[in-house]
Amino acid sequence: MTLKPETALLHTAHGDVQNFEAVQPGTFRASSVFFPSMQAWRERDWTAKSGYIYGPHGTPTTFALEAKVAQLEGADHCLVCPSGLNAIALVYITLLRPGDELLVPINVYTANRTFVTQELMGWGINVSIYDPTDLNSLTFTDRTRLVWVEAPCSMTFEYPDLPALVELAHRHGALVALDNAWGAGIAFSPFDFDVDISVHALTKYASGSADVVMGAITTKDKSLYDALKLCYMRLGLNVSGPDAESVLKGLATLTLRYHAHDQSARTLAAHLRNSAKVARVMHPALEDSVGHQFWSRDCRAAAGIFSVVFDGRFSEADIDRFVDSLRLFRIGFSWGGPVSLAVSYGKSVATLQELEGELVRFSVGLEATSDLIADIDQALARL
């Protein structure tokens, strides 16, 4: 058959890429995926990764990313999601039904808390708050289905006794889901502590470039993975090939960047601790931080974020001026990117201890540590 040019352009083979190997996998973008025959179409398995059936259900690029993230966290299965919060919500939507009970820590990630209170509770799911530093505060019933854990929380950085908490939850027949955006698969391996599910905000350290929003769910349990995958598909979730490509590139330098962020943040935290204008520095590597003994026992490193509580004599306006005076620390959300960030949250933070003054969270980037210290010092001088 002789084809007209416009038809031939659409039906020319792309070429075989099976024997092409490079540092990074190829970037595939697709909605329609072709089948070689109707038999293959009828035998398709939309829950497995044995083939490709529809772009939103996976491409070689997204499958490669999922395999790497699963390996990073010591899991067997992974789903990449449009955002970290979406990954959190997917766990809840998949596992919880009206009448079930969810346990969440009092200092849980703010967007997580909002989803729990504004959506889950409205759907008839019971929510119980617990103190992650006090195992006796966890109240279990025969309807307790899931315990949510952060190690540590991302605002005041209390670090829980994760193995004991997981053991207690399992003893009562509850599953444990861990928000592992802080650990990023580098500080510790979540499945060494027998958690059932790990949720990871790839937006942060895995990407490292502050230009991609993505989340991941990992697990070692095939039945949990299958349930999550089915819900994922019913909700029509997917991530784009270019975004997956970007995170794959970030993973290549993740370990180096994580330790660089860690080292710089510890230096800055120790420096701020010596200021008479600071009441408290919250960083799990500091000996007086809540749960330091568990962090030092269980972790190999720490993320490059910490919070500072200023002396109570400084007002909200004073601390706003301090943050506005910073030149290298930009005002913005998230962490794990190359540029340092700082935001004042005042006293409107869910915490286990009453705050002496205004709280500022620092996310340390990849600038020279000495430059960041100088920037903080010139802003402190304005207080």
TrEMBL record:
Keywords: Lyase, Pyridoxal phosphate. The keyword Electron transport does not apply. It is an enzyme of class 4 (lyase). Its EC number is 4.4.1.13. The keyword Zinc does not apply. Its cofactor is pyridoxal 5'-phosphate. Belongs to the trans-sulfuration enzymes family. InterPro entries: Cys/Met-Metab_PyrdxlP-dep_enz (IPR000277), Cys_b_lyase_bac (IPR006233), PyrdxlP-dep_Trfase (IPR015424), PyrdxlP-dep_Trfase_major (IPR015421), PyrdxlP-dep_Trfase_small (IPR015422). Coiled coil: none annotated. It catalyses: L,L-cystathionine + H2O = L-homocysteine + pyruvate + NH4(+). It comes from the Bacteria. SUPFAM superfamilies: PLP-dependent transferases (SSF53383). One of its GO terms (molecular function) is cysteine-S-conjugate beta-lyase activity. This is Cystathionine beta-lyase. It holds the Pfam family Cys_Met_Meta_PP.
